[in-house]
Amino acid sequence: MSTSTSSTPRVDFVGDTGPVLRTGDTSFDAQLDRSLTAAMRGAADLGEVGATAGRITPGDLGSWRHEWRTTADAVRAEGDESLAAGHRVSARRCFLRACEYYRQAFFFARDDLTRQDLQDDYAAHVDAFRAAAALMDHHVETMEIERDGVVAAGYLLRPAGPDALRPTVIAPAGYDSTAEGGYLDAAVGALEQGWNCLIVEGPGQGGVLYRRGLPLRPDFETVLRPVVDWLVDRPGVDPAALVLLGRSFAGYLAPRGVTGDDRIAALVCDPGQYDFGRALRGRMGDAVWQRVLDHDPTLDADLAGLLADPQRANDFRCRMATHGVSTLSDYFRALATFTLDGLADRITCPVLVLEPEGDFASTGQSEPFVAAVGGPVTRHAFTAAEGAAGHCEGLGQFRFERVVHDWIATTLARPA
Predict the structure, then answer these.
(1) Is the bond preceding 215 in cis, omega lying within 30 degrees of 0?
(2) Is there a contact between 408 and 194 (Cβ–Cβ < 8 Å)?
(3) Which Gene3D superfamilies does this UniProt record tie to the protein (predicted)?
(4) CA 362/CA 274 separation, integer angstroms
């Protein structure tokens, strides 16, 4: 999910000493919401999140990293202590919370892939998740693929017990997430339904970006194909019941993947995204967009105002690093290559398109996407009134899961 602010109504969580669970900084608080949703899954503690938020200096990116790292290290140490004493459940809980807190620590440090703090915090994030995975009740298998120039990694999680054939949810990471983060976003809910879940990261995501330096690529069908090849050979995977769940930027990646792989039985887009060049042109205007396309050498000087605010500049630079570019104009040109124009009619499986109120990622994208898709489309709008507005439904994650999981179960039950 993204750093942008959700339109979900803000709630002041008030303790004996005043407001908690808020830093007073808009960008920080948008990220803080992600740890609040992690608490739903036992991967964050509201008291720990509030104590950490209370120590952060608003607007200070260094303070954000330091305080989250401090909390993460303390919780990880407690997990190690519990494990050494034979308390596996307590240890697993600590490791999952530490995994979330390490993710928070490096979130704003992704502007330069060579940063040591990024590398250290990311490594700790992965290590904490794998320590938790070793203590989980269900099966966890690590996936690492390098084939024909494609690098992908992730984890296949399967319910405990015999490996009867089950549906499998494939959940690609988004713009700023990791395969490990996908455990909370997708895997926990799928496992509760009795399904398998493959959480996966490819170029421009997680360790494929931070460790291998491979930037995001628009042709996700090329990435998905070897992933599915690997998946269908695993025990307990029903090859006729593969569901692709794309959240945040994966709302583009997932449908793009389906355009080149007809083994996907159902597709969920949260939200649906169609053509980033068209979206950018709508926001920038025809004249400026033409300068982008013309590689106008004076354009970046004119765009410098977009980098005046330190936090906004950090957001842009993180995205530039994701695409392997160093200027705004190069970033906009790279983003414009991410399109489903002329390809979406290849998507013939059933599609669920989610439309959360106020989600910046779906602005102007949903209508052309729905119109171009070749298969049957179901649309569902989430609203602020029900507490599920903003990017990827904000704090309304159980509302999201009810709609998505019910649709998947119903869709897979229909005759082919």
Answers:
(1) no
(2) no
(3) acylaminoacyl peptidase, alpha/beta hydrolase
(4) 9
| pTM attached to this predicted model | 0.93
CA 251 to chain CA centroid, nearest Å? 10
| 343 in a structural domain | yes
Task: Tell me which H or E stretch contains 314.
Answer: helix 310-323
The total number of structural domains that make up the chain: 3
Same domain flag for 222 and 316: no
Q: What is the DSSP letter of 340?
A: -
Q: Which of 232, 226, 228, 222 is nearest to 257 (CA)?
A: 222
Report residue 374 as tokens: 């070749």
Tokens at residue 156, please?
């296949």
SS3 224: helix
| Residue span of the structural domain in which 43 resides | 13-130
- Average pLDDT of each block of 10 consecutive residues along the chain (416 residues)? 39 47 82 93 94 93 97 98 98 98 97 97 98 97 95 97 94 96 96 97 97 97 97 97 97 97 97 92 93 95 93 95 96 97 97 92 85 96 93 93 97 81
CA 408 to each of CA 131, 142, 144, 168, 394: distance values in angstroms, whole numbers, following the listed order: 31, 25, 27, 11, 21
Same-domain status, 343 and 330: no
